[in-house]
Specification:
Distance between the termini: 45 Å
CATH topology of the largest domain: Alpha-Beta Plaits
Radius of gyration: 23 Å
Number of strands: 15
Helix content: 10-25%
Order of helices and strands: HEHEEEEHEEEEHEEEEEE
Oligomer: single chain
Number of helices: 4
CATH class of the largest domain: Alpha Beta
Strand content: 35-45%
Length: about 190
């Protein structure tokens, strides 16, 4: 068997999914280029969430898999174009052979992604929810929400301090809701 017969060009000419490594913060631009310039089916899910900024809470959109996009193509027909696409670093593989992703992996991910490939994460805090404080002097402490103060982007929580129970107010940005992430809900089944 010749060395040439072991190269990926001769091993896989099926329409399959590949994981493509892209340059930092260029997932969206690279996905658009692969769709419009190379005419590939691309899956580049993103996560939309609120982040605390100097002027309050702002909606932010980031790649769900930072540094990676998924594309489905025939290796022989499209690899040269994929590698030449702006933002592409390489195709993920082992030993110089690009790794193929099973169709069901992408199908399972798509179940959780809304229209436009974006998962919106809402921090819908309600009285009775358990939260963990992630910043400030009480960082690491778990508490129960007693009131939600949406106009001030704050919540009131019950803390056990110095032998008694106290209600204090904290910023919503300083808590982490103790709930199962929507993308891991099916993993336990």
């Amino acid at each position: 068997m010749s060395a040439q017969a072991n190269t990926p060009e001769f091993q896989n000419n099926d329409l399959v999914w590949y994981c493509i490594k892209v340059r930092p913060k260029q997932e969206g631009m690279t996905a658009r280029s692969l769709r419009t310039d190379v005419h590939l089916e691309v899956f580049a899910p993103s996560l939309r969430f609120q982040r605390s900024r100097g002027k309050g809470m702002m909606w932010v959109t980031e790649a769900l898999f930072p540094g990676y996009v998924f594309a489905r193509f025939h290796f022989c027909d499209a690899m040269r174009h994929v590698r030449a696409t702006r933002g592409v670093s390489n195709v993920v593989g082992f030993g110089g052979v690009p790794s193929v992703l099973p169709d069901n992996v992408i199908a399972d991910l798509r179940i959780f992604v809304a229209e436009g490939e974006t998962v919106t994460v809402q921090a819908d805090v309600a009285p009775g929810d358990e939260v963990s404080l992630v910043s400030g002097v009480f960082s690491g402490i778990r508490a129960v929400v007693t009131r939600v103060l949406p106009a001030r982007q704050r919540i009131a929580i019950l803390l056990e301090l110095l032998g008694g129970v106290r209600e204090i107010e904290v910023s919503i940005a300083d808590i982490l809701l103790d709930r199962v992430h929507p993308l891991t809900a099916n993993a336990a089944q």
